Every structure is written in C-alpha cells, then in structure tokens.
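Predict fold of DNA polymerase III, delta subunit; 344 aa.
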Amino acid sequence: MAFVAKKNAGPTYESIAREINAGVFKPVYFLMGEESYYIDRLADLLVLKALRPEERDFNLITLYGADVVIDNVLDAAKGFPMGAPRLVVLVKEAQNIKDYERLEYYLKQPQASTILVFCYKNGTIDRRKKGIALLGKVGVLFESKRLYDSQLPSFINAYLASKQRKIEPAALQLLIEYVGADLNRMAAELDKLCLSSPSTALSISVASVAAIIGVSKEYNLYELQDALAQKDVLKAYKIEKYFDGNPKEFPIQRTLPTLFRFFSNLMLAYYSMDKTESGIASWVGVSDWQFRKTYAVAMRNYRAEKVMRIVAEIRRTDARSKGVGSTTISSGELMKELLSFILY
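Predicted 3D structure, encoded as tokens:
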C-alpha cells in the first residue's frame, strides 16, 4: 500500500515487507523520511516476524535517540540473543542521534544474530555521510515519502481492499478532504469505518464517513468546492455563512488550501495534451469520476484566464488572512470578497 515516487530507486515498502514476511532479514534497517506511517509499519513487522512473543522480553531492546548516543546503540547491537535465534535492537526517534559516521565500523562486520532497526522520522539522513553509503549494501536504506494528494485514493482503496471493503467515490473524496495526507490518521479512520459499517454493505457511504469522522451534516469543504464548480452562487454563499458561524470547525486557513488545490488542478486541466476525459483526469491526477463530477463542470463555467486570476486571488487572500497588508478585516469578510471574485 505504499505509493512512492518512481524516481526513488531505493527499495519500496512492498519489497521490504515481502522479504520480511518470507523470513529474509538484513542485519541493519535504516527507515527514514517524512511519512512516519511506513516507518512504523516496517518496524512493527520486523519485531512481529523476527521474534516470537515469548522471545521479546529478553531479545527486543528498544532505545530512544534522545537518551542514547550512537556508541550505546552499537554496544547493544553487538550483544547476543538469549534463548532465541535473533536479537532485535529497535532505535526510535533516531533523528536525535549524532555521529552516524561511527556506524561505518559496525557495518563492516555487523553482528550476524542482530537485527538493528533505526526509525529516523521527519527528515532524511545526509547520504554523503561517511558510512551511510554502506547501509544500502549491507542492509536496507529506505526513504518513506509523503504521498501526493493524487495518490491518496489508491492508498485508501488498497487499504480497504485488504479488509475486503470498498468505498463510494464521493465518500472517498470527503474522507480525503477531512483527513488529508496523514496516513496514520487515515488508517485509524479507515479502521473505524470498517468496524462501524456492516460487513454486508457493498461500499462505505458518504453518510458513514460523515458520522464517523465528525463531518458536519450541514455543509463541508467538499460541497463548497462543488458549488463553486457549478457557479451556484446561492449555495456557495450559504456555505460561507455556515463556515463563518463555525470558525473552529471551518477556519479560513483550512478552507483556502482546499480551494487553492482545486483551482490549481483546474488550471492544469486546460493544458492537458490529451483532451479526452480520462486523459485530462490522468494529467490532473484525479479519478475519472471526480473529473466528471467536478472538474468537467468547472471547465464549462470558467475560462483559463479567469482561473489563473482566481489562483492569484486565493494566494492574496491567504496572505491577508495572516496579517499581510491588513490586520482588521475578519476571516468572514475575506471569504466573501474571495467568493465574489470567483463567482463574478
């Protein structure tokens, strides 16, 4: 279920997980990147497959980067298992450790019975550091990248397919709008949806998503986007009024990125070389269903030049909402001005 960029020539989540599930272990795993979901999944899988439950008390050593230095980690890795074939040394918060150059000496002759796992989150290690190049040869150097918005539907569908579930296209879009690209949170919400929806249900519905993740039954960002695509002036202003009355649930800082993403994608749609429906949808990075429902409608209602000016106006509104140029106008007034610019 990992959808990493193709330009990343390193090992993928799937390839690493396949080897672990087959009982093929490397002496060192360096799991790093901005997306913690895959780092956590691989670390958990290594512990699950490398040690039986009764072996973990004496053969699973968990260290935290804020509390140790690299020499502490290497000393632990040089130990021997007790009553088990392997010792697993799991280093959490590994981004707090310095002097990774010293890892080179261990990598030249790693302990055969030890699986050393580094969980390095919220960034990547400098691959130019001495010794880091050895990681990919001796063990596994994996970068967990954040998914693009266009990759989220594939992640959700694959995750649900693993649980023999499906989701309605509209429900999927609503889920993305409200949860975003935080995969740990997304997986938790999907688990809740699977537990709460009857196993006999053909697909998870919009109503289920709204009920489980707390989406307002009145209006939501997804409906505002559709209203603007359709140039439904009355509905757009009704939604804006509702948002203005519920600033904690619908702050302008949450609304503007959604509108910016939509109109930026709409701008791209005009420049697709393939003018077929599926061609434009692929170019923009949305599903055919989403293109038909929203983008195709918007393309009939807005000219490319207008969309370009809308994108610029959303940027300007975002800056003003953060105090640039004006600190007195309310968020509600800013949104009304923006909607007026978009719709007229």
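Confidence is low (pLDDT under 50) at residues 3-8.
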